[in-house]
Specification:
The complex is a heterodimer. Chain A is an alpha+beta fold. In chain A, about 60% of the residues lie in helices and about 10% in strands. In chain A, strands 4-3-2-1-5-6-7-8 form an eight-stranded antiparallel beta sheet, with helices on one face. In chain A, strand 1 and strand 2 form a beta hairpin. In chain A, helix 13 runs parallel beside helix 15. By secondary structure, chain B is mostly helical. Helix content of chain B is about 90%, strand content about 0%. In chain B, helix 1 runs parallel beside helix 3. Chain B starts with a helix and ends with a helix. Classes of the chains: A alpha+beta, B mainly alpha. The interface between A and B is medium-sized, with 36 and 33 residues. Chain B: Keywords: Membrane, Transmembrane, Transmembrane helix.
Chain lengths: ~525, ~80
């Protein structure tokens, strides 16, 4: 390869890495934590689970439906979602919309979304499920930064550039990929960072490529969907979706009221017909209508990434559709495989822990990339000192700000009362505000090693505090909680302690650096005074 | 770097769509399989084209080569669809 080509690619790799680093760091940190989303969800609402223990093994969907129908004016046009109780979440979770007589004062819509945790036997409302969404919020930070569709596409574009950075990195490093595989020099910082960057980048390459590709499919598939619709399917999105296997039968509404009964019976039948599966969710299309359809969506337990689905009409309990193999469509099968690869949900906790370590390692690769850029630019005489200081301070502020923000969010999710009005809004505000404050403060601090040292220590302490704040849960509810719930609590606490330790360890490194800087300054001042 | 990024982004998108369509129109598989192949090929082609653009010294030179890839591919789509 020509040296000019190599130089162009190296510059591009460094430039892209720097531009995308701030968002990509948030994506990887939030994504690593989100690997344990279900555990984190249990961790957040453990007080609720403990207070309502012991939990009944019996479930009566018919009773629950009758009660909901009696209490709420459920919107027939909106899909009604039901999540069955599990060992870690012993409540039925229902998500639906209610009709409003007048437009909603905030949204202006004629319906309002409801998400409730219900007693599985009596159907009594335990709590609004929207109050316990910290795990979901962190997951949103991972894929759309918590700002909806715009964030989704923005993260998609960042992921595309991440893919470009990966490919350019492979091309740049190709000749030394095997020769320098184990190289790790303990000399100058730049060599150390470069070796760590290359070593982790090379070892994690299959993982990085898989994440970049699968992430792109989730966030930017719309690009190909639109282009296929326009060129191959005469502009019809519906035809594209049909070809893509989203063609399960749908029945029109009859506009005649009917009670939603017979679900308990159909549940047993569906589980028999689907075989060894884990139920993901149930759905009712046209809730309360004579033509209501009950859908069971599940995942096969004995096959890799196989989605199964069965549908019945509630009126006469007739099966209208069943699939045992990803909707009998290769594209949907492919998408299910891509999803399983991305979430690492196919090989137990071992796989998720490996993904977690690789996720944090990628965050380290991102940091070292920025540090190398700063170090290289600092040596260039033409480099503007102001812009260099800006990038240096932004790197510290945004990266550490992300850690502090998520840690504070976790503490808030643990200590804020479960019945607090606007609980999730408060948690969102805490996370975004702390990130913003940390980033802005960093921009005004000249002594960056000290800033990093203290802010990293603070991050570590807050993560440790989140784990510590959960200790009363063990004491208060330890005897009544199931093993699955206790395992969830332990995993989340361990994860927070691990992140806290990493933050503290990094802070110690910065403390050494700060001390070194102080010594250098003292030495220079001493030399000046003697001369 | 911005001109190369924008050029690579747009041409990468166009070329990836065009090549994905080529495969869709040529490969003798079921419709769902062809769509899946297009989806799998699309993003790596898009990213690969962007890397290729960055490897050139100037955006103008890159644009010439990109047109040499895009035009035959697009032409093939037109021929296959008409």
């Amino acid at each position: 390869m020509k040296s000019q080509t190599l130089k162009s690619l190296t510059n591009a790799h460094a430039w892209i890495g720097l531009i995308i680093s701030f968002v990509l760091f948030i994506v990887f940190i939030a994504g690593s934590i989100s690997l344990f989303r279900e555990n984190l969800d249990t961790w957040e609402k453990v007080a609720l689970i403990g207070e309502h223990a012991p939990h009944s093994q019996q479930v009566s969907y018919d009773t629950v439906m009758a009660k909901l129908d009696e209490q709420y004016q459920v919107d027939t046009h909106h899909i009604f979602y039901l999540y069955e109780p599990t060992e870690r979440n012993p409540f039925i979770q229902a998500y639906f919309a209610v009709d409003l007589d007048e437009p909603h004062p905030e949204t202006g819509e004629d319906h309002q979304d409801m998400s409730l945790l219900l007693d599985p036997v009596t159907g009594d409302v335990i709590a609004p499920a929207n109050n316990f969404q910290f795990a979901n919020f962190v997951y949103h930070l991972h894929y759309d930064l918590g700002i909806g569709r715009i964030g989704l596409y923005f993260v998609g574009i960042i992921t595309l550039f991440f893919f470009v950075a990966l490919l350019s990195g492979v091309v740049i490093h190709w000749r030394k990929l095997f020769n320098n595989f184990y190289q790790y020099r303990f000399g100058a910082n730049k060599d150390k960072w470069l070796d760590a960057h290359n070593l982790i980048g090379t070892m994690g390459l299959p993982f990085h490529i898989m994440y970049a590709f699968t992430g792109l499919v989730f966030n930017l598939v719309i690009v190909y969907q639109i282009s296929y619709a326009l060129i191959l399917y005469q502009g019809s999105q519906e035809k594209v979706l049909q070809a893509a296997g989203f063609n399960e039968p749908h029945i029109e509404e009859a506009d005649t009221r009917m009670a939603m009964t017979g679900i308990d019976e159909l549940y047993v039948r569906a589980m028999e017909e689907l075989g060894d599966v884990t139920l993901r969710r149930m759905m009712i299309e046209h809730f309360g209508d004579e033509n209501a359809v009950l859908v069971f969506m599940a995942k096969s337990n004995d096959e890799f990434s196989n989605e199964v689905d069965v549908r019945y009409t509630l009126k006469d309990q007739k099966q209208i559709y069943i699939t045992h193999d990803n909707y009998d469509n290769n594209l949907r099968g492919g998408l299910a495989t891509i999803a399983s690869l991305h979430f690492g949900d196919f090989a137990g906790y071992g796989m998720r822990i490996a993904f977690f370590i690789l996720g944090l390692a990628t965050a380290y690769v991102i940091i070292t990339g920025n540090l190398m850029w700063i170090s290289k630019r600092a040596k260039q005489k033409k480099q503007s000192q102001r812009s260099l200081a800006f990038v240096t301070r932004l790197t510290s502020g945004a990266f550490i700000g992300c850690m502090i923000a998520i840690a504070l969010g976790a503490v808030a999710a643990k200590v804020l009362p479960i019945d607090l009005e606007g609980r999730m809004t408060s948690i969102h505000t805490i996370v975004y505000t702390s990130f913003f404050i940390c980033t802005v403060v960093s921009l005004f601090v000249k002594q960056q090693p000290q800033f990093c040292q203290y802010s990293l220590k603070l991050s570590g302490l807050v993560f440790a505090l989140a784990a510590l704040a959960n200790m009363p849960s063990y004491l208060q509810y330890g005897s009544v909680l199931s093993n699955a719930v206790l395992v969830d609590l332990f995993i989340v606490d361990l994860m927070f302690i691990t992140i806290a330790s990493l933050c503290w360890y990094s802070a110690q490194k910065f403390a050494k650096k700060a001390k070194q800087v102080q010594q250098d300054i003292a030495q220079v001042q001493g030399e000046l005074s003697t001369s | 770097m911005w001109p190369k990024s924008i050029l690579g982004f747009i041409f990468g998108l166009l070329i990836s769509i065009s090549i994905a369509l080529n495969t869709n129109l040529i490969l003798p598989f079921e419709e769902d399989t062809r769509l899946l192949i297009g989806l799998i090929l699309g993003f790596p082609i898009w990213a690969g084209i962007m890397v290729w653009v960055y490897a050139f010294e100037t955006s103008l030179k890159a644009a010439k080569y990109l047109l040499l890839v895009l035009l035959p591919s697009a032409l093939l789509n037109v021929i296959l669809m008409v």
